[in-house]
């Protein structure tokens, strides 16, 4: 019985690794690992202990973490893979005797329990996407394609490699095939350490054994493979080099898989012939958790974890951990080795992610077509309602109303940006934490095309139609300014809703926040309440309103130089043409016309200087930059663990 002999397993050569990003790692050791969290969703957050004083060592080969549901398997694996919040962690994890390097998680393959992949991509495209972004740039496209094909064949995905992933509405591949695709996306990178959380869940018995045999073969090449698994068949159990049995976050056994039965027998727990050892271990642990066993030759009320802690095996392990903590194995350059977590450049990442975004839009055109058709119908409808506006007082009112409604529509259309991002948030977090791309590449190539193609393009087309139908000023410079304001308002509304999508975890929360912000901005637009009538100390809020900034520019652009007949005079003179005259009524001088300038003055909108039309545009542009930075920052600071 020798604790350290866990690591006397074969030493492969880490063959197939792409050496520029993959250091050959042979051992992970962990000492006194304790992990606790503050439980979410309670007013007084209670501390919950998940792991307590766990020790161990895992080496090249197939290592399994077993235990009942909720025993802490995933948490332990996450800690070893450097994917847990260090704030709640106590103890040390050493990689080949060295502290875990900063970017360790990018050096490892990690298959999560839940799988989230882009629905419109095929299996081959998904695996190629992973290879394209995560393999070093010196690996040619041809080599990547060959590697992808090899992994597809290895996991038996050949016959369905061109099938789409699908989603809840569009039937795609099965859950098991999805899992295999995810595993393939990690295998294709050929990391020297591979973590797999419940890789066989969702697979039939035969495929599970096949998969585990594949993982065993991979580990025989000198790779360190760690899996968490619930209740593997004996055929799978036989493949494990080492097993770690957990019970309520404590170690019940850690050592060679083929010694475990002997160890339990030494405690009086005899595994019956023909019984699957894993079933036997889990049953024993379950009984131990329930009733605190009172077995002959054992100290009463000692449970399996205490017994293991006091065992000879555990003390050998402790000694070996103590001794190995300072050994570097020549890998003391681990930290400097992986300075840059991304093997591909910012531009390459933006190109690859952008290409996928475009493919997604092209392959699910319904949403885009629907947005395009609805916005054109609304454009035509508004154009019909505000058809060829007259230069009368009602024409002035209609102009203001129409411009306000155009801005309202832009905000409403961009509400969908919340959903667009929320939908892909899980995929973004998964891909980002797996080192596919930088946040900036994703932002540039995923968020921005979405804003431009799905939101801005339809709005610009419908507003061009609307502009011509309403009879707004026909000069090209006025139309250009109109479309520029529409563009900036669109970017603002889109960025605002992307920000809200990043900020909150559900559509309803984001929609409530959006409603609140929109109402505030509408109040300060100026046409529901006259800003000049408000107390000075609150008037500044108008500069925070996209509506106010946009509307003031649109109004200056449209109204300066226009004259509007008072409808009253047109009726009494029965003259449909507009004339400019003044009448003296007692002390009052009444004009037959209202000028656009007079209206703007009454609204507190500056118009006299050419710059006045640009004031709102510059405000909108600055606002767009600020909102984009906020959205980007929200994406960066998103909790990614
Ligand atoms: N962030 C967290 N907040 C609260 N509880 C947590 C948190 N993370 C883990 N837990 C709890 O810790 C325990 C261990 O979780 P973990 O996912 O590691 O178990 P597991 O053995 O992998 O379970 P399963 O076999 O079901 O996957 C569970 O009871 C879980 O609810």
Report the β-strand fraction as a percent range: 5-15%
Low-confidence stretches: 14-21, 295-301
Q: Characterize the overall form.
A: elongated
Distance between the termini: 38 Å
| Number of helical stretches of at least 4 residues | 23
Order the strands across the largest sheet as they lie in space: 6-7-8-3-9-10
Q: What structural category arises from helix and sheet content? A: alpha/beta
Mean pLDDT: 84
Helical content class: 40-55%
Q: What small molecules accompany the polymer chains? A: adenosine-5'-triphosphate
How many strand elements? 14
Largest sheet: 6 strands, mixed
What features would you highlight for this structure?
alpha/beta, 14 strands, binds adenosine-5'-triphosphate, ABC-type transporter activity, six-stranded mixed sheet
Brief rundown of the structure:
The protein is of the alpha/beta class and 641 residues long. Helix content is 51%, strand content 13%.
Structure description:
The chain is of the alpha/beta class and 641 residues long. It is built from 23 helices and 14 strands. It has helices at residues 73-80, 123-134, 141-154, 175-187, 205-220, 234-237, 260-266, 277-291, 304-309, 312-324, 334-337, 346-363, 365-385, 393-414, 416-433, 439-470, 476-503, 507-523, 536-539, 546-559, 567-572, 596-602, 611-637, and strands at residues 27-38, 47-59, 61-66, 89-95, 98-99, 108-111, 193-197, 224-228, 242-247, 250-256, 563-565, 582-585, 588-591, 593-595. It has a six-stranded mixed beta sheet, sandwiched between helices. Strands 2-1-4-5 form a four-stranded antiparallel beta sheet, sandwiched between helices. A two-stranded antiparallel ribbon has the order 11-14. The longest helix is centred in the last third of the chain and has 32 residues, at 439-470. The two termini are 38 Å apart. Bound molecules: adenosine-5'-triphosphate. Adenosine-5'-triphosphate is lined by residues 37, 39-40, 48, 50, 67, 69-75, 228, 230. Keywords: ATP-binding, Membrane, Nucleotide-binding, Transmembrane, Transmembrane helix, Transport. Its main location: membrane. GO terms for molecular function: ABC-type transporter activity; ATP binding; ATP hydrolysis activity; efflux transmembrane transporter activity; organic anion transmembrane transporter activity.
């Amino acid at each position: 019985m020798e604790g350290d002999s866990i690591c006397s397993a074969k030493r492969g050569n880490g063959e197939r690794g792409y050496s520029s990003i993959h250091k050959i790692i042979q051992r992970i050791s962990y000492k006194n690992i304790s992990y606790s969290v503050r439980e979410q969703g309670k007013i007084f957050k209670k501390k919950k202990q998940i792991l307590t004083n766990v020790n161990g060592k895992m080496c090249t080969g197939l290592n399994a973490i077993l235990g009942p549901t909720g025993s802490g398997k995933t948490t332990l694996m996450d800690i070893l893979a450097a994917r847990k919040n260090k704030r709640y962690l106590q103890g040390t994890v050493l990689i080949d005797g060295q502290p875990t390097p900063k970017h360790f998680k990018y050096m490892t393959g990690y298959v999560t329990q839940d799988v989230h992949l882009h629905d419109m991509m095929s299996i081959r495209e998904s695996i190629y996407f992973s290879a394209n972004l995560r393999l070093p740039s010196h690996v040619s496209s041809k080599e990547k394609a060959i590697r992808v094909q090899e992994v597809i064949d290895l996991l038996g995905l050949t016959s369905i490699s061109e099938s789409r992933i699908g989603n809840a509405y569009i039937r795609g591949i099965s859950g098991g095939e999805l899992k295999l695709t995810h595993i393939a996306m990690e295998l294709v990178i050929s990391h020297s350490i591979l973590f797999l959380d419940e890789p066989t869940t969702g697979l039939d018995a035969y495929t599970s054994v096949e998969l585990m045999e594949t993982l065993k073969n991979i580990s025989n090449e000198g790779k360190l493979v760690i899996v968490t698994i619930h209740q593997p068949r004996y055929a799978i159990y036989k493949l494990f080099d080492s097993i770690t049995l957990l019970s309520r976050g404590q170690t019940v056994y850690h050592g060679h898989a083929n010694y475990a039965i002997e160890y339990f027998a030494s405690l009086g727990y005899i595994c019956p012939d023909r019984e699957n050892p894993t079933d036997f271990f889990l049953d024993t642990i379950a009984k131990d958790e329930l009733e605190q066993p009172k077995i002959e030759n054992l100290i009463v009320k000692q449970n399996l974890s205490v017994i293991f802690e006091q065992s000879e095996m555990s003390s050998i392990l402790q000694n070996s951990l103590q001794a190995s903590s300072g050994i570097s194995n020549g890998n003391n350059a681990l930290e400097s080795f992986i300075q840059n977590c991304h093997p591909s450049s910012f531009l390459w990442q933006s190109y690859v992610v952008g290409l996928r975004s475009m493919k997604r839009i092209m392959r699910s055109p319904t949403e885009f077509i629907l947005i395009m058709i609805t916005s054109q119908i609304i454009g035509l409808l508004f154009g019909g309602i505000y058809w060829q506006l007259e230069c009368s007082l009602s024409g002035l009112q209609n102009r203001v109303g129409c411009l306000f409604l155009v801005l309202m529509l832009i905000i409403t259309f961009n509400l969908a940006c919340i959903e667009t991002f929320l939908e892909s948030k899980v995929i973004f977090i998964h891909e980002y934490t797996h080192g596919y791309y930088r946040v900036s590449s994703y932002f540039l190539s995923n968020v921005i095309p979405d804003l431009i193609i799905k939101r801005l393009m339809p709005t610009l087309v419908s507003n061009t139609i609307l502009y011509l139908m309403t009879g707004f000023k026909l000069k090209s410079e006025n139309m250009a300014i109109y479309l520029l304001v529409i563009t900036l308002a669109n970017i603002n509304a889109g960025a605002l809703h992307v920000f809200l999508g990043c900020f909150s975890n559900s559509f309803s929360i984001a929609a409530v926040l959006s409603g609140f912000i929109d109402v505030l901005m509408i109040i300060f637009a100026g046409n529901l309440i006259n800003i000049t009538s408000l107390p000075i100390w609150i008037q500044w809020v108008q500069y925070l309103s996209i509506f106010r900034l946009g509307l003031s520019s649109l109004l200056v652009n449209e109204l300066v130089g226009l004259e509007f007949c008072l409808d009253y005079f047109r009726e009494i003179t029965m003259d449909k043409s507009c004339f400019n005259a003044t009448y003296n009524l007692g002390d009052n001088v009444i004009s037959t016309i209202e000028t656009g300038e007079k209206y703007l003055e009454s609204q507190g909108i500056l118009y006299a200087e050419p710059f006045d039309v640009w004031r709102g545009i510059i405000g909108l542009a600055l606002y767009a930059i600020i909102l984009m930075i906020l959205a980007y920052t929200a994406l960066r600071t998103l909790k990614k663990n």
